[in-house]
Structure formats: C-alpha cells, structure tokens
Amino acid sequence: MENTRIVEDLLRSHGLKRTPIRLEMLQLFLKYDFALSASDLEAFMKSDHDRVTVYRALASFEEHGILHKASEDVQGIKYALCSSSCPDEVHTDMHAHFTCDECHHTYCLKDVKVPEVKVSNSYAIDRVNYTLKGTCKQCKS
C-alpha cells in the first residue's frame, strides 16, 4: 500500500499523531483528484465518525500545512492537499483552482500561478482566491 506509507510519512513530517480518522481522511484526499468538503468525506468514509471529529481533523490538517482551502460554495469549504513545499501555518501554495459548473468538483491548477496584485499599504492581504469556472474534462466528454 503505497498510499499508506505516504499518509504515514505526511503525518509524521507534520508532527501529527497517527489516528484512524486522519489515516482514512488523507487516504481519500490521495484517492480523488478534486477537492473534498466535510460532507464529501463523511459520505466517502467507511468508518463512522462524528461531524465534530471530521471538522477538527480538517482544521488540524490546514493548520499544519497538509491541506488548503480550495474553494467555498453552497456545499461548504472544499479542501485539497498542499504541495510538499507548503510550510506549517503559512500556505505558500499560490495557485489557481477550477470549479466545474456541472459536477461542482474543484481542482487545483498547480501550474497556473495566482498573479501578483499590488495594493496600497492600507491593506494587508492574507489570502487570494483565484478560481476559474467552466466545464471539467469528465463532464465535457
């Protein structure tokens, strides 16, 4: 199981304990090529975990630089795996996302960088959301 080793290494490298819910959730993020919401995770997980535990795990993953918020819509916040170069607490994954109008999946476009925007010193930018919308390749065919 290659993914099991990847998940365990990911948890260890970010100083997180190996728990059944963390293992199962990260396996799902590796399995799917699109961002997942808490509702998606609850639907896909084989084990029965309460909603609070799922949200705590997501918050912990984001805090430790394992996941980043890929999009937010009526279905909630969708999370995607960060690259290995994304440090704890300060996400440096500055890439675009694509949300499909048909299936509503959100994909990371790691090769499409967010353009640098200059604003006056009156503002302190913490996050940038650069989302492209249209039809994904699965829905298009």
Describe the structure.
The protein has 141 residues and is α+β, with helices and mostly antiparallel strands. The chain has a single domain (1-134), classed as Winged helix-like DNA-binding domain superfamily/Winged helix DNA-binding domain (Arc Repressor Mutant, subunit A, Orthogonal Bundle), CATH 1.10.10.10. It contains 5 helices and 6 strands; from the N terminus they run H-H-E-H-H-E-E-E-E-E-H.
Characteristics of this structure?
141 residues; 3-stranded antiparallel beta sheet; alpha+beta; globular; 23% strand
Query: Per the principal axes of the C-alpha atoms, what is the gross shape?
Result: globular
Cα-atom Rg, whole angstroms? 16 Å
Distance between the termini: 32 Å
Mean of residue pLDDT values: 89
Report the CATH superfamily.
Winged helix-like DNA-binding domain superfamily/Winged helix DNA-binding domain
Major sheet details: 3 strands, antiparallel
Q: CATH topology, which one?
A: Arc Repressor Mutant, subunit A
Element string (H = helix, E = strand): HHEHHEEEEEH
Which sequence of strands runs across the widest sheet? Answer: 1-3-2
Q: What structural category characterises the helix and strand content?
A: alpha+beta
Helix content: 25-40%
Q: How many strands in all?
A: 6
Cofactor: Zn(2+)
Binding site for Zn(2+): 100, 103, 136, 139
Protein name: Zinc uptake regulation protein ZUR
InterPro entries: FUR, WH-like_DNA-bd_sf, WH_DNA-bd_sf
